[in-house]
Design goal:
alpha+beta; 5-stranded mixed beta sheet; 14 strands
Length: 331
């Protein structure tokens, strides 16, 4: 007599079925990853804008407390000592009073490594790929970079003989009030994004006159060519010099200023040197961002906008003057 036995044979996927499943998973991952990356970038952009809003609020709290906006830096005639940045002056209004209490503003920051090497989160864009400290050689100190630079105007920055600044929102030894922004604080950029470890060139015969016209891209590249490249721009949040914590509107945001293969800034002379030589400072220090197609900028009324890199040069330069009497169209 034959007994019916249960079928104990296991079923399994065929190789073809397995490959089909793997292919479907790969397609789904391929569709999902860009969406995840876009969501992450949107979050980074939002955090970047929030950082700038916090700086804007700090500036207005500083204005309320002291009746003026802080200077970009301070120098006396003949003084070649490094000067502290605007960003260092607003620390108490960024909930960082303990850090500012460590600062002795009467002495150079190079002798205060406990300050210079401190990372200030509000000064760093979450998209910055070189969010790391730098060890300077001369003078020896460890510095942390910055991603938000103050507006110093279009091209001309500082005349040490007449103590004249450019048309930007901040300058050397300035004590601007809201009345100084005759173009309107809602029409004047105060800060804009900059990239850490930005390359720059300094120097050039005949380029230190206050009457040197705003140059073209090819002209600036010519100025820079033959000078020594530095890769330490925007690496010192404590330093008020133009190539460290500032920008100018010579060129529109994210413009490639290619000196050979290097996208670089150009400065005719640093602010501290002109105080002893009499040279003026002219600078093409471009606002740059890791956010594709835009830079985030803070206007002097405290609002923050994402400005297209395709903005016209005339509109961008008009936004970066405090008293140019320009009529700014939509941007």
């Amino acid at each position: 007599m034959l007994l019916n036995r249960p079928n104990t044979r296991r079923s399994a996927f065929t190789l073809i079925e397995l490959l089909v499943v793997i292919a479907i998973i790969a397609v789904l991952i391929g569709l999902l990853l860009p969406a995840v990356q876009q969501a992450r970038e949107a979050a980074r952009r939002s955090q970047c804008k929030n950082n700038m809003k916090q700086i804007g609020l700090a500036l207005h709290n500083y204005l309320d407390a002291l009746t003026v906006f802080p200077p970009a830096n301070c120098y006396g005639i003949g003084n070649s000592t490094a000067s502290w940045s605007m960003q260092a002056r607003i620390l108490p209004y960024l909930d960082a009073a303990n850090l500012q209490n460590l600062i002795d503003f009467k002495t150079a920051y190079s002798g205060q490594p406990n300050v210079t090497q401190t990372r200030v989160p509000t000064f760093m864009c979450p998209s910055e790929v070189q969010d790391m400290a730098r060890v300077a050689v001369a003078p020896a100190a460890t510095h942390y970079p910055i991603n938000y630079g103050v507006n110093r105007g279009i091209w001309f920055v500082w005349n040490p003989v007449t103590a004249t600044n450019g048309q930007g929102a901040f300058g050397v030894n300035t004590r601007y009030t809201s009345a100084d922004f005759t173009d309107g604080m809602s029409n004047t950029v105060g800060l804009s994004e900059i990239k850490a470890y930005q390359g720059n060139y300094k120097g050039g015969s005949g380029l230190t006159s206050a009457t040197t016209p705003i140059p073209s891209l090819s002209t600036v590249i010519g100025y820079a060519t033959g000078n020594t490249l530095s890769t330490t721009g925007h690496t010192e949040w404590v330093d008020g010099k133009i190539h460290e914590t500032c920008f100018t509107a010579t060129f529109t945001p994210n413009t490639d200023v290619l000196v050979g293969t290097v996208d670089a800034d150009y400065i005719s002379a640093t602010e501290k040197a002109p105080n002893t030589t009499g040279d003026n400072t002219n600078a093409a220090v471009t606002s740059r961002s890791y956010h594709v197609g835009i830079v985030n900028s803070m206007l002097m009324d405290g609002s923050v906008r994402s400005i297209s890199e395709n903005i016209s040069t005339s509109v961008w330069q008009s936004l970066c003057t405090r008293n140019g009497s320009e009529v700014v169209s939509e941007y």
